[in-house]
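Model it.
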Amino acid sequence: MYEITREQSEKKLLKLAQTDPLTGLANRVRLTDVFERENRRSLRQGTPLTVMILDLDHFKSVNDRFGHGMGDKALQHVSRILQKSLRRTDLAARLGGEEFVLLLTETSEKQAKAAAKKIRETIESSPLMHSGETIRLTVSGGIAEYGAHGDSLQALIRQADKCLYHAKQTGRNQIIHIEDAPDTSPACS
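Modeled.
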């Protein structure tokens, strides 16, 4: 009996250590663990692996106008959309603030672009209500594929982040991958 209780307690502690407490999504620790496992599998099986970074547009104005409690609700709302939009084999993680990372297994950059469009449109068409007022949310993002754009989680996040900033600089509410960037900016810089 003691052994079962101890094992259950260890599992709970491990889950807490790998979960963002506000959104229930994976945190950086779990993202890193899952990436390493999926990366090895991707290499073994020759399947693609893609990272997508999403950042809520103008999130500071939500906090400023409606309060941090409503900002938290917005993050939870987006987290639920992400969880519903992904396959069981994919992973959504919160990096911090209003930034999320999606790890898309067996997904090429082209396939990730289609998934990104669906996610972006779902977030845009799913406003929050607060005291009779509509709070519209949008996201900007970037996509990077393992191999073509980097060979580590950090390299992929860095590349996707460059594309994210390009998306923010060119109008927001869009998710960019390298081929979407202008010819003069092949690295989304």
